[in-house]
Amino acid sequence: MSQQRIGVLVMSYGTPESLDQVEAYYTHIRRGRPPTSEQLKDLTDRYEAIVGGFFPLRENTNKQVQAFEDRLNADHPGYSFVCYQGLKHASPYVEDGVEQMVKDGITQAVGIVLAPHYSSMSVGGYIKRAQDKADELGLSIQFVQSYHLHPKLLLALSERVNESLQRFVGTPRNNVRVVFTAHSLPEKILEIGDPYPEQLLETARAVAAQTSVDNWQFGWQSAGRTGVPWLGPDILDILHTVVKDDQVENVLVCPIGFVSDHLEVLYDLDIEAQKVARELGIHLERTASLNTDPLYMETLSDVVFALCERK
């Protein structure tokens, strides 16, 4: 009996692979409008600040996709899963991934975004692009919308919080303020009842409960530099506030909205937020990213296979 062959479109934001690709990448993000020289220098400087310009997101994503495919096939031997990448702002684009599946003879597919929480502006956008291309090519595809309360995801995050709290030697756990963060989005999502903020709070509450952390709050980070207001408070503002109002000296950031080491983690938190923390006299730590954590890979495997079973 032949194995059932299923294509899995693994979608994520994408990143340039080298410094000379930053301008084209930034132009794509800006929908074809090239960045100003100041904007380009700012982004390039941020990448250069990360270990001399090493681009971790692409390598991390490649490793995640391979580990995910391995996990799927190990967990479900009656199937043959083949993973394809589809990136939002870099090659292979979302549409390229769908097209490659069709070229390879895939007739049944599942799409999933490497982001546990749904927003119409993020995950919803990926799904629309993939669905439009699949419809054009006649490919049957279904999508995982979110997986923000999967038990294995919560366990992986909880393990990281517990491990990181041990770094505050001599400080009682409840004297450490835990700040759960995610990528900010424009405030206009609140007007349409977008589930993104509430799903993030649900994850934060669940992890706080599993780790018996009472001293926590939620914050945002990495807001875009546009003329519209974005969700806040920002992590940098939180650092100022907790020192001034609560006399907090120890902060643990748990970026639950991110699953990989990339610019928003390695620069926005490890460089920018750490700089502010040092200036304020705060001991700041960050939980390790999920990357290819087996529990995260099992989470992805579970939610994709659940869709296949319902087919």
TrEMBL record:
Residue numbers binding Fe(2+): 183, 264
Enzyme Commission code(s) on record: 4.99.1.9
Keyword DNA-binding: no
Pfam families to which the protein is assigned, alphabetical: Ferrochelatase (PF00762)
UniProt-listed PROSITE patterns: FERROCHELATASE
A GO molecular function held by the record: lyase activity
Location relative to the cell: Cytoplasm
Catalytic reaction list: Fe-coproporphyrin III + 2 H(+) = coproporphyrin III + Fe(2+)
Residue numbers binding Fe-coproporphyrin III: 13, 30, 46-47, 126
Lineage top rank: taxon: Bacteria
EC main group: lyase
Calcium as UniProt keyword: no
This protein's pathway: Porphyrin-containing compound metabolism; protoheme biosynthesis
InterPro entries with a match to the protein in the record: Ferrochelatase, Ferrochelatase_AS, Ferrochelatase_C, Ferrochelatase_N
This protein's UniProt keywords: Cytoplasm, Heme biosynthesis, Iron, Lyase, Metal-binding, Porphyrin biosynthesis
Family: Belongs to the ferrochelatase family.
Function: Involved in coproporphyrin-dependent heme b biosynthesis. Catalyzes the insertion of ferrous iron into coproporphyrin III to form Fe-coproporphyrin III.
UniProt protein name: Coproporphyrin III ferrochelatase
Name of the gene this protein is made from: cpfC
